[in-house]
Specification:
Elements (H helix, E strand, L loop, with lengths): L31 E9 L2 E4 L1 E3 L5 E5 L3 H8 L5 E5 H8 L6 E4 L39 H11 L4
Parallel strand pairs: 4-6
Antiparallel strand pairs: 1-2, 1-5, 3-4
């Protein structure tokens, strides 16, 4: 009968090889982040965005200057730490956090409207493409006539 090797028969334990991941394990917390917000019912609410593939993500910036360069000078923001922002968005099912997004279009202010004269009058709306009263002798006309007389058809 063949003998099954035991742990002691294999010789001394070999150390596990070092991982050779090219990716870092987990980035260090970014410290204070500038988080864009919008007015809400009870103060302010963090603004959430979508990635190019459609997943929801929280967005933060490492400096107010970067936030203004991307979202404009009028964008309100609050300082939050990364763990605090993640804790706010986790109940919403949002796991992604994008810091200093670079794949966004640069901020372009909206053009200022030029004051114009009075608004043009609306054009006359043509009547319905069908006659206001059904053609005589059709089932719809009989119902229409009965309704006008107040009797059942």
């Amino acid at each position: 009968m063949p003998r099954t090797p035991l742990a002691d028969d294999r010789g001394p334990a070999q150390p596990a090889p070092e991982p050779t991941d090219a990716e870092p394990a987990e980035p260090a917390p970014a410290g204070r982040l500038c988080v864009p917000v919008r007015p809400g019912a009870h103060g302010v609410t963090t603004r959430l965005y979508r990635t190019p593939v459609g997943a929801r993500t929280a967005v933060a910036f490492t400096s107010p200057e970067r936030l203004r360069a991307t979202l404009g000078g009028d964008q309100p923001w609050i300082p939050l730490s990364e763990p605090a922002l993640r804790a706010l968005t986790r109940p919403l099912g949002i796991r992604a956090l994008t810091v200093d997004p670079v794949l966004t279009a640069p901020f372009t202010p909206a053009p200022t409207p030029t004051p114009a004269g009075p608004a043009p009058a609306p054009e006359a709306v043509p009547g319905p493409p069908y006659p206001a009263r059904p053609r005589p002798g059709t089932p719809c006309a009989r119902r229409f006539d009965a309704a006008a007389r107040g009797t059942a058809a």
